[in-house]
Amino acid sequence: GPSVMWFRTDLRLADNPALAVAAERPLVALYVLDDGANGARPLGGAARWWLARSLRALAAALAAQGVPLILRRGAAAEAVPAVLRETGAGLLAFNPGETPIDRAAEGAVTAAVAKSLPHVAVSHGVRRSALIHDPASVGGRVFTPFWKHIRAAFVPPPPLPAPDRLAGAAAVRSDALNDWELEPTAPDWAGGLDESWAPGEAGAAKRLADFLDGGLTGYATLRDRPDLDHVSRLSPHLRFGEITPAQLWHAARAAMASGRATSLDVEKFLTELGWREFSYNLLNQRPLLAEANIQPRFDAFPWRQDEASLAAWQRGLTGYPIVDAGMRQLWQTGWMHNRVRMVVASFLVKHLLQDWRAGEAWFWDTLVDADPASNPASWQWVAGCGADAAPYFRIFNPVLQGEKFDPHGDYVRRWVPELTDLPNAVLHRPWTAPPGVLSAAGVTLGESYPAPLVDHAHARARALAAFQTIKAKA
Ligand code: FAD
């Protein structure tokens, strides 16, 4: 009988080990939207938008070779066996999941198939593609030794090509993608996402090619500059498995071998991929990574309840230009530069004393790359309660961060246009500008742009005092 390829977070044809196996027979492609049915966290709004676009791209690529993409909704342990039964399939193939939830779901599917469809062969785990390392074989709480070990012990195998010929099996009933209502309609807030991204495998490949042609040169130093274009923006493509870390690894190493990139830049880029590996490793050690402090002493931390501050942060109205620029970039494009993510997260947790989980939840809803491992791991890292975390008492000064990493103010002017005419000397600290400078720039603090929500020195002292209350509990 035909094979069923169960796609999950591997929405691509190339470097897809399970698909390579399934493609040896007439093929039915299946995607199951579990939407919380497996105990997984329901996707946030921006990720739902991405998923819809990515599925459409995958369906088109498969349809070009006569393969139907069947969409079903519900628990995978019911949906997958149902499709196997309806198609008369003799083989089920899928790639191993890399989160505890995904592994639980595949365990339930495998058990259901063994029980009710014992003649169906199940192929999974032929080879790992979503991560470079195997979280079950390596542990650790400190990034540097972790990465040293991974870098020495694991070289991802050369990526597999897309299967050169697919044959479609007879289609069975599929949900209509539009009925899943993954994309916003009224209001349609996704215009900025549309302009910023091309979800799908082809979009991912183009993004990588552009990065190799441009941004990678200078990456090691310029990746911290949100005003420049020196990061890959591959994160949502990686998140949905439209491209693999092995593909990135080999492409970057090839650029180095051919002299197009320096080893310094390439090694730094691989190290950032290493943080993704590290985050997945932590998630596997800590399935409740988005809920529970890794350091239990933070359970007693005196977070403030302050809906108004949280809302000002979410809307990019804190009065700190670099923070507001980041939050507006996030809202409009579904993505934020990494340096600015660190600044806005630190501001929420330390200046506003809001529980990191509130920020993590906002990012989960608004990021197109919202990732079950990297998002909570990064929040815990910034908040100081994570593994190998930035210490809580190291408090970013948002003015100095802005002046250092957005030195000409191009980033702030792009996202906070009401400050465009302020001179650089005060752009990151408008409240220090003389009244004449503000009025010449058309800025009225408290009206056209907010006055600072908190004073930095006051907020810093308050955060340190809050930390003192739990410090002893190391
Ligand atoms: P590049 O610099 O081009 O890096 C290449 C790839 O490496 C990225 O696509 C990403 O997959 C990985 N990577 C880079 N930096 C990190 C990092 N610090 N941690 C984990 N992986 C990394 N990344 C997510 O993919 N999803 C998230 O939900 C997410 N939430 C974050 C929340 C906070 C508070 C912070 C501080 C960081 C978060 N990051 C998250 C990590 C990082 O900001 C993004 O991966 C990066 O900005 C994506 O842009 P890029 O693809 O251009 O990165």
From TrEMBL:
Entry keywords, A to Z: Chromophore, FAD, Flavoprotein, Lyase
Biological processes per GO annotation: photoreactive repair; response to light stimulus
Molecular function GO labels: deoxyribodipyrimidine photo-lyase activity; DNA binding; FAD binding
Catalytic activity field: cyclobutadipyrimidine (in DNA) = 2 pyrimidine residues (in DNA)
One Pfam family from the record: FAD_binding_7
Site for Electron transfer via tryptophanyl radical, residues: 303, 356, 379
Residues the record lists as binding FAD: 219, 269, 369-371
Protein name in the entry: Deoxyribodipyrimidine photo-lyase
